[in-house]
Amino acid sequence: MIIFRLIGESFRFAFDALRQNRMRTVLSLLAITIGIFTIIGVFSGVDTFRNKLQSSVDKLGSKTIFVDKFPWIFGDYPWWKYINRPQPSIRDYTSLNERMGNATGIVFKARSSNRTIKYRSNSVEGATLLAVTQDFNKTSNFELVDGRYYTESESKSGSPVCLIGSEIADGLFNDETAVGKQVQVMGRKVTVIGVFTKEGEDMLGTSLDNNIVIPLNFAKGLFNVEDQQYNPQIIVSGSDNVSLEESESEVRGLMRAIHRLKPGQEDDFALNKTTMLSNQLDTMFDAVNIGGWVIGLFSILVGGFSIANIMFVSVKERTNIIGIQKSLGAKRYFILLQFIFESITLCVMGGLLGLLLVYLSTVIIDYFFDFKIVLYLKNINLGLWISVAIGVISGFWPAYSASKLDPVEAIRS
């Protein structure tokens, strides 16, 4: 009980000192406020972008393998090494589909961007046309708000049917039902059989909101689906009971056999996985986090020196009071705690103000730019612990020098 009473009394002395010097208190905590705002602001922004990008990556599937001409590489890209590779072909897809044992679905996909979709007098520009084979619903995570997915017979016969994203449906039909209506795509009439559920913005372009999906055999009559400009790609979704490494090994072996590559000969194809994106994103965001620490710590360092200076001034101003307290029996640790708590209180106030600014920034960004930044509890705790640590470090030496004062000399001063 005595210890708690001493701590409470130390806090009371600290608050009295801060209240009596309001202007000095406000100026002292500004540097801490800026430092905490910088660090926690950067961390919150990084966490938000990381989560949005990771959710986009997760939509591609954790056990999905993409057979491409070019690998997913960030940084220096040796394009000359891959430029002469063959494009993934329908022959490759057919052979994989016949021989692959550990797969829940295999899809050949071609993409045509910036297409105009028309319905009567309405039109939507900038739509992405996806030509896919039957297993597209097994390799992609999506839901339909209306209608159905196309059947195997529609896929094989190349029926003029399509599924459209929510933005296309809103732009062409407003509040009307889209299913059953015919839209015009690349000069051909196509019947809408389904509408994708609205997914919202996507940072990797995996959202289907502005996409129109048609059977590959129907798309063959519209454009050359194996041409490089349409980014042909084979997507393999591995079985749940088989590891990604096993599926990748099987796909690599089959592709090498299909392309008749000799042992020791380098692959003429790329097997891309979502883990490659995740690892690159982690590296990039770790670098941004380090940058946030560096910038924020410079501000906090300046704030720490400022608070240490203020605490020395505070000790000088209250030297005679310290002498009176010690002459009345106050112990050294009581004087020490009194000034350390004052320093901690000052830093925590600055930290709370910095966190408040971060929160207000997230509200403003969400309101004006419709982009939600999340302030996680772990970042709030981190900001408070940093404030406490700076308070202890900055206030220890002034508090220690105050606790060592001789009571007679202190009173005489």
From TrEMBL:
Residue ranges of domain MacB-like periplasmic core in the record? 25-252
- Membrane topology, as annotated: Multi-pass membrane protein
Q: Where is the ABC3 transporter permease C-terminal domain?
A: 294-407
InterPro entries from the xrefs?
Answer: ABC3_permease_C (IPR003838), MacB_PCD (IPR025857), Macrolide_Exporter_MacB (IPR050250)
- The answer to whether the entry has keyword Transmembrane is yes
What molecular functions are annotated in GO for this chain? transmembrane transporter activity
Keyword Manganese in annotation: no
Q: List the keywords (alphabetical).
A: Cell membrane, Membrane, Transmembrane, Transmembrane helix
Q: Which family does it belong to?
A: Belongs to the ABC-4 integral membrane protein family.
What name goes with this protein? ABC transporter permease
Native source organism of the sequence? Pedobacter changchengzhani
